[in-house]
Amino acid sequence: MGADTGDTGSAVQAGSVAYQPGPTLPADPPTPAATLDAILDQRTHEGEAGVAVAAVTAQWVVFCIGERPFALPGRQVLEILQTPPIHFVPGCPPALEGVIEVRGTIWSVLRLDALLETAPGPVTRRNAILLGRAAAMQSGLRVDGVDDVLELAPDAILAPPADLPGRLPGLVTGVFQHRARAVLALDLERLFTAWRDGL
Prior knowledge:
Blueprint: H1 33-46, E1 58-65, E2 68-73, E3 77-82, E4 96-102, E5 105-111, H2 112-116, E6 128-133, E7 138-143, E8 145-152, H3 168-171, E9 172-178, E10 181-186, H4 188-196
Parallel strand pairs: 2-10, 5-7
Antiparallel strand pairs: 1-2, 1-8, 3-6, 4-5, 6-7, 9-10
């Protein structure tokens, strides 16, 4: 006798298992926006989400005048030279040491010890000249030695001390620690303005 084929849609062949649909489950309720915000905030704090952003840093040239360390923004220092021959110019004020020639260009040379009223160190092989440029002026800057060129985040520079002596309060823009010493940050715009105004 042949198999009953009256209802081919419900026939089950030997060895197969009939599919029995389960009960329909209710859809998950939508997650409230407040809950999403909380999850994102938690993941951000736990470092599970978000893209790390590199800290913005700026370059600084650290140098010394006598025993005191200073620094200038790297963007204002074009070049660091071993002290070339400096040609004296008669009648110049004490802070202007003379002029130098750098690849066919004449540069004035200012004595930072005189501008900053800081005692200079001895003449040694470490003496250097920084070729500095600001918006309206450029000049060589005589320093006793260059100690380092480093990168600093903005929050590494603190407000300048309130007890700075002499001309320093109007010339120092901040202070930071380097090699266990307090380095006074300068700005060429202020230095050159003070020079042009006759200090």
